Amino acid sequence: MHRTWTCLLAVVFCLTPAFLVAADVTTGDLLDDMIKFDRLTRMPDPAYRTYQFSSYDRRADLPEGQHWFGNSDGFGNSPIPDIVRTVKKADESGVGTYVIAEVNGPGAIVRCWTAAGARQGRGINGHIRLYLDDAEEPIFDGKAYEFLYDLYAAIARQHGVNDEGLSDGFGQRDAGYCPIGFAKSCRVEWIGDLRKVHFYHIEMRKYAEGTKVETFEPKMLDTLRGELNRIGAVLANPASRLKPAGDVTEVAATVQPGTSHELMKREDASGKITWFELKLDAKNLDRALRQTVLQITFDDHSRPQIESPLGDFFGAAPGINPYDSLPMEVCPDGTMICRFAMPFARSVRCDIDNRGNEQISVAGKAFLAPHHWDKSRDMHFYARWRVNHNMQVVSRPLPRECFDIPFLCARGEGRFVGVSVHLMNPGTTPSCSWWGEGDEKIFVDDDTNTPSFFGTGAEDYFNYSWGHWYLFEHAYFAQPRCDGPATRGFIVNNRWHILDDVPFHQRFDFFMEMNHHTAIDEFDYARITYYYGRPGITSDHMPPFREDLREPRRPDNWLPTSEYRQHNAIYYQAENLDGASELLDSDPQWSAGKRVLFKPSGDGDTLSLDFNVAETGKYRVHIVMSMTPNAGKCDVLLNGEPLPGLSTGKGAIDLFTPFHTIARWFGSPPVELRTGKNTITFVSRNKNPASQGTDLGADFLWIQP
């Protein structure tokens, strides 16, 4: 009888439908992974590896080989098609069918990206089909940009499911974070024209063989709607949804120049920091944020696992640059918050090292919670900073002069979870001093010539595109500072790998290619990598030295130059034009150190500046203006007539920005300029309701035939 029941149970198990077998990884699990910090503190179970499929230049098949710094990575007409394989060759119209991402075995899509403007055809042309588990019919068949940016909502629309709220938090600027699990396989086919623009990133997890992953189905967008709404709300506004947990420890200290202070210490017990916030006070805050070094040491290690200038650690320096993301937040009042979980087996010590020449004060809170340290899986949190000052970089037509900048080279076991870069770009071409044409290259474990991540541009890695200078913040990335004009000045970019973390078992090497649009000197490139590491992990980290921590500074008396896209530009300094009078303001941020600062007395008040043109003709007119918390709105007139694109009668240009003083350029289509005197007139149109004033600041203008 016993034998009979055993046989029957075996038969029943074999005949049990796959959907009744408990999955190791469900769609709900993947959604939870989007906001869970604790899971990052241990090696993943079940195990997985993270890969990126992209439109990178396929000629780059040998590190530092002939085409290692090639740039044919999605612009079209690549010498080698930037695809996985061809399904159907191009027809007479140039459209073919190509596989651009493919995984055999259990896995999940965790991130997609394409260039901004895709909805106008700038980022990728054509359509995409998504096949899961070798199904004959695709689960998605639609426009390529919808797949790469707005996948959940697009699938819902195709399958008759309500798409309301499915974009909130999951679509973040140019990236889409819509996890799609699969049990057996995933194939992404692109139906498009290789001769046209087709930028793409598709990141996948590939789970260990035998892992049971629940395959995504469109109906889950209904059955999991509550979970989707909850996760989306956190991603859309982390600061309002995430709260500290654990027992609070208040910390405060006044630290004299050249001294170090122990801010917090806990011994003889395991635990974890769940929330860490600090606020710094100093006479010169920008300098102090760079010259105050945060050191956090877990379990009596000989070197602190966290070692970084205080401002850089929180992902927004120099200065206080407010932004809100999932693991990091900087508040307008200067409070800086880290939400990464930091476990320890027996001790933690936090020190503040004042490397500057003035007294500082620091105050904050650390929230600590119980944690059982698992010797076989638990990891410490690392944040390691480095900088290269006065870099000499050359323009991209000379690929032999490009080079890879090391971010982190680690040996051991861990999980990579983020990076932040803090730059000083002294480029002098006001509309195209782009610094990030180079690609990320991330080698994991047994990678040899081709890394697991090979990108298509630094801004693409940071989830935006086309070298844009807009300030933005999202759950997984931000650009909280970009001084301008364009991408000149101080710049901060960060990206957090929460859903798309990168586990490694022996090796992790992260490089970012330096490839600038113009040749410049004195480029400063600071960066900090965030990762978890098992005890015994090693890296190429060096402690910050005196020269590393020098005060962030801009070059003095810079002037715009006529090169690259502005090779025929004619510049006019606003302060030198007739009409500028005494309305001058000085700062190294401005060209030649000065700008015209006009304070209107009321709506409709005007400022006119005269400039001379050598020859009558059609010219594009560009004006560099300052945006500040005190700025107003304006229209711009040329020779008494509205300047196209810059005048509506109601304030075409809103110069308000809540926290910064930045420079931005505004341009017109070609207009007629006459020989001799021409006049630019700024007409005050009141202000943004949030602004504290109606100031109008003009730095310089340029014309191009």
Task: Give your account of this protein's structure.
- Helix content is 10%, strand content 40%.
- The protein is mainly beta.
- It has three domains: 22-236, no CATH class; 241-539, Sandwich (Jelly Rolls); 568-704, Jelly Rolls (Sandwich).
- β18 (328-330) and β19 (336-338) form a beta hairpin.
- Residues 1-20 have low confidence and may be disordered.
Topology:
Blueprint (H helix, E strand, L loop, with lengths): L1 H14 L11 H7 L14 E7 L30 E4 L6 E10 L2 E7 L13 E6 L7 E4 H6 L1 H8 L12 E2 L2 E2 L3 E3 L2 E9 L7 E7 L12 H4 L1 H12 L1 H4 L5 E9 L4 E7 L4 E11 L3 H7 E7 L7 E4 H4 L9 E2 L3 E3 L5 E3 L3 E3 L3 E7 L5 E10 L10 E14 L9 E9 L2 E12 L14 E5 L8 E2 L3 H4 L10 E3 L2 E6 L6 E8 L5 E3 L2 E8 L5 E14 L4 E2 L30 E4 L10 E3 L7 E5 L7 E8 L3 E11 L5 E6 L2 E2 L10 E2 L7 E6 L3 E3 L2 E9 L11 E9 L1
Parallel strand pairs: 16-23
Antiparallel strand pairs: 1-11, 2-3, 3-10, 4-8, 4-9, 4-11, 5-6, 5-10, 7-8, 12-22, 13-21, 14-19, 14-20, 14-22, 15-16, 15-21, 17-18, 18-19, 23-33, 24-32, 24-34, 25-30, 25-31, 25-33, 26-27, 26-32, 28-29, 29-30, 35-46, 36-37, 37-46, 38-45, 39-43, 39-44, 39-46, 40-41, 40-42, 40-45
